[in-house]
Amino acid sequence: MTLTEVLKSRRSVRKFAPQSTSRATVEGLLKLTLTTAPSSKNVRSTRFIVVDDPSTLRRISAMRDFGSALIADAPCGVLVLGDGSATDLWLDNAAISATVLQLAATEAGLGSCWVHVNGRPRVSKAPVEGSPAEPAETAAEYLRGFLPIPAEWNPLCFIAMGYPTEPTKPHSEKDDSDKIIFI
Ligand SMILES: Cc1cc2nc3c(=O)[nH]c(=O)nc-3n(C[C@H](O)[C@H](O)[C@H](O)COP(=O)(O)O)c2cc1C
Fold it and tell me: pTM (2 decimals)?
């Protein structure tokens, strides 16, 4: 596949075939990402936690009340984190790495979906007026409750991964010329 073909065929995949992903395949994708993703001052602050245990995937899928349920049916997923002790730009570096990982997965025939963690509450509905001012639990705090996440590693997103059940549809073509300024 050319890079253009990879870019065009990467779509968010939320339904996966029951076929499992091999740890060797996933490890290869993660090492490729760690080696090639650009990072501020080449600090390589991105970290990964791979999950292929179905019961842990089910627990992770409950991290938010909206947008994370698909993780329960994925054969595998990768929590993408940034080491905050390495750089203040951990989030920027992790977002680039997550994107590179999704593109590498596409080339390997795997579908994936970015499920956001950073800054997201577990329950999206705002607390009703007059309710106790307890800060709501975040998705990241929930994950820290059962995953071995070192204190200085900050979760950005969870990339659900697996073999797609159907070919991905092409992106819709829009006239985006108003989003570009040439000087
Ligand atoms: C920062 C970010 C957060 C996202 N969060 C979620 C999410 O929580 N749940 C989900 O199902 N998809 C999530 N997505 C996937 C987007 O919905 C998807 O990329 C977008 O609709 C474009 O579709 P495409 O990926 O098929 O091109 C997220 C994507 C990004 C980049």
Answer: 0.96
- Which sequence spans correspond to the domains of the chain? 21-123+138-163
Question: Would you say how long the chain is, in residues?
Answer: 183
Distances (CA, A) of 162 to 16, 18, 74: 6, 8, 6
The CATH class for the domain spanning 21-123+138-163 reads: alpha beta
Closest to 162 in 3D by CA, of 4, 7, 25: 25
Structure tokens at 155: 């979760």
Question: Which ligand 1 atom sits closest to the C-alpha of 171?
Answer: 27
Q: What is the DSSP letter of 71?
A: G
Residue 168 pLDDT > 90? no
Pocket of ligand 1 (CB under 6 A): 11-12, 14, 67, 70, 113-116, 171
Q: Report yes or no: 117 and 155 within 8 Å, Cβ to Cβ.
A: yes
